[in-house]
């Protein structure tokens, strides 16, 4: 029988002396979306290496499901939930990071970097006009907007934005007149960054209803990569994929540390782990290029359409009324990369899709993605992603 005396000093939370034979770890994440399910998978995979852990639970806080847990991993989405979790007197890790100053341990996505990634991607498509569809009252959404605006080097007042509470975006029965008027007021074309996929999907729905073409009039990028919902949208929604399983593992690590801390150990004032977003899953809602140079538009369209074939820059140049030097120079000036790098980027995007969603052997992944040699695939992948394709696959599989 093990005894743990756990104290967090300089926070609102203090842990009482407890006798724990088999720690009972409860998950209060909500499993009704891909975000919660992926985090739960990360926790469960970590827990498999902890034979003395008992992991259970589902749903939300105020559902009568709490049964004297020793530790909680939660998704606090209201101020009331955050306060209630802070007052429980047991180790709690929050994965939502929606409200500041709770004193809870946190494992969460780097939302400022997420906004920065969104801005960089939309800028790479050649847009000069930008908009933001946001969620009122949550810290993570505010951080995403800050990252987005900062990366654009534009003040809040210079980027048109439309924000409503999360429930407003979720509820299909509410009146959308104000959203319709805002979308109709946007200059054409505009790149719109949505705080999450719920916002992005609602905006695509309303654009279709009022005759705004996506992506040619308004391109839409979401966050979370709720893959099934994103694919079912018309047009399908591009989205920034988060490392949700990594967040789950990090939350379990924080909780494990709190449960294992010796009685005389003083905990840090606040324990948190912040993970960067993963990649951008490009779908129909952003498959466009806004540029005044027809040569650039033709080049990018050709490269994207033919990336999975055994082609090179010479094949591209053969389709254009310009020399290779001219093509390379103009693409570099417009997009900040060479045609070869652009072709490589499209191939890697598809390779990562295959790695994350199939059991296809690595040599088949390379061939299907347009790489002519497995060695070249390995080299490019490791240089770009910082790890081998096999390691990346283990970390990023969409299914357990």
UniProtKB/TrEMBL annotation:
Molecular function via GO: DNA-binding transcription factor activity; transcription cis-regulatory region binding
UniProt keyword annotations, A-Z: DNA-binding, Transcription, Transcription regulation
CDD domains (alphabetical): PBP1_XylR
Residue span(s) of domain HTH araC/xylS-type: 297-395
The keyword Lipoprotein belongs to this UniProt entry's keyword annotation: no
InterPro entries named in the record: Homeodomain-like_sf, HTH_AraC, HTH_AraC-typ_CS, LacI/GalR-like_sensor, Peripla_BP_I
Family annotation (PANTHER family): LACI-RELATED TRANSCRIPTIONAL REPRESSOR, XYLOSE OPERON REGULATORY PROTEIN
Protein name as annotated: Helix-turn-helix domain-containing protein
Protein source organism: Gracilinema caldarium
């Amino acid at each position: 029988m093990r005894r743990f005396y756990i104290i967090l000093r300089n926070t609102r939370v203090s842990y009482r002396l407890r006798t724990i034979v088999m720690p009972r770890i409860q998950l209060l994440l909500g499993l009704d979306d891909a975000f919660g399910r992926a985090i739960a998978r990360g926790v469960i995979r970590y827990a498999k290496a902890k034979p003395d852990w008992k992991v259970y639970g589902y749903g939300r806080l105020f559902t009568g499901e709490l049964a004297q847990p020793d530790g909680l991993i939660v998704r606090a989405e209201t101020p009331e939930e955050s306060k209630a979790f802070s007052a429980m007197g047991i180790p709690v890790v929050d994965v939502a990071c929606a409200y500041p100053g709770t004193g809870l341990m946190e494992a969460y996505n780097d939302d400022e970097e997420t906004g920065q990634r969104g801005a960089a991607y939309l800028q790479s498509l050649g847009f000069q006009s930008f908009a933001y569809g946001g969620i009122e009252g949550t810290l993570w959404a505010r951080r995403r907007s800050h990252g987005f605006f900062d990366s654009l080097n534009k003040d809040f007042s210079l980027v048109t934005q439309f924000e409503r509470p999360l429930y407003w975006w979720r509820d299909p029965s509410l009146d959308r007149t104000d959203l319709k008027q805002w979308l109709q007021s946007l200059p054409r074309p505009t790149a719109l960054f949505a705080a999450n996929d719920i916002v992005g999907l609602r905006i695509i729905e309303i654009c279709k209803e009022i005759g705004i073409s996506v992506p040619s009039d308004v391109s839409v990028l979401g966050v979370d990569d709720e893959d099934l919902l994103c694919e079912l949208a018309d047009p399908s929604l591009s989205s920034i994929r988060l490392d949700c399983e990594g967040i789950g593992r990090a939350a379990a690590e924080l909780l494990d540390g709190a449960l294992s801390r010796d009685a005389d150990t003083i905990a840090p004032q606040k324990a948190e782990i912040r993970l960067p977003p993963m990649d951008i899953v490009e779908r129909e809602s952003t498959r466009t290029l806004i540029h005044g140079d027809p040569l650039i538009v033709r080049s990018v369209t050709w490269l994207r359409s033919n990336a999975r074939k055994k082609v090179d820059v010479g094949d591209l140049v053969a389709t254009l009324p310009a020399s290779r030097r001219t093509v390379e120079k103009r693409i570099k000036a417009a997009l900040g990369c060479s045609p070869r790098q652009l072709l490589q980027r499209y191939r890697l995007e598809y390779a990562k899709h295959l790695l994350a969603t199939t059991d296809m052997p690595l040599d088949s992944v390379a061939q299907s993605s347009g790489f002519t040699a497995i060695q070249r695939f390995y080299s490019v992948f490791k240089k770009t992603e910082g790890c081998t394709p096999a390691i990346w696959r283990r970390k990023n599989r969409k299914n357990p």
